[in-house]
Amino acid sequence: MMRLLVRGVGAMTAVAMLAIVVTSVSCARQTVDVGTNDAAPITPAVVATDGSVFPSGYGCANWVDSDLMSLRGNTCTGGCSDAFGPLYALATQEELEAATAGQWLYCGASPFGPSDAIGIEFAPGCRLFFLVRDQNGDIARGTLQAYQASFDIYDLSAPGAPKRVDINLLGDAGPATEKTITLDVRASACPNRVELLDRAGKVVLSLSSDCGDAGCRPPVVK
Predict the structure, then answer these.
(1) How many domains does the chain have?
(2) Fewer CB atoms near the end CB (10 Å): N or C, the chain?
(3) Integer CA distances (angstroms), 24 to 9, 10, 61, 128, 170, in order
(4) Mean of the pLDDT values across residues 60-83?
């Protein structure tokens, strides 16, 4: 129960004061949830080879053509039968992005993605496209939702951190078909090849930079 004692003021002033008090009490009882201003995602932690856990810089590195090509260095075409040469260190997200950028053809079938895809493209903004042959026989990005995906790179700054990505598949039938596949990465410049492996070290997908006469899309923005 609230009491208001008013002395030496007129009736209208008293009414105004009462309105202020009631309004103040009413406002004080309201709770407004405006959410959080923290845009950082909740992401996997990174565990080094010694078992230490490090905060994650999980996500996507900036794609700058000149920087990417500098990190990629000199490369030579690598076919499916070519053994890997010296491996990229993949010590940073930028290095991993540079080593995998562009279009690659499958060496054998892929266990994920559309069944008619012949390859995969790692593109700017951590976008990923499954590749097909168009009506002219050229290599092209698939245009349906199932042929488009994204990827996130794990924090590679911790000593012994795995060279790892999450591939986020959209599927072709809404949220029920969406899933994320976690894979480790190894890559060499000459021959220019990439392999994606499961956590047990088994090769899940082997990739070739030899796209034949059709040619692979250069790993730069045009």
Answers:
(1) 1
(2) N
(3) 21, 21, 50, 55, 50
(4) 90
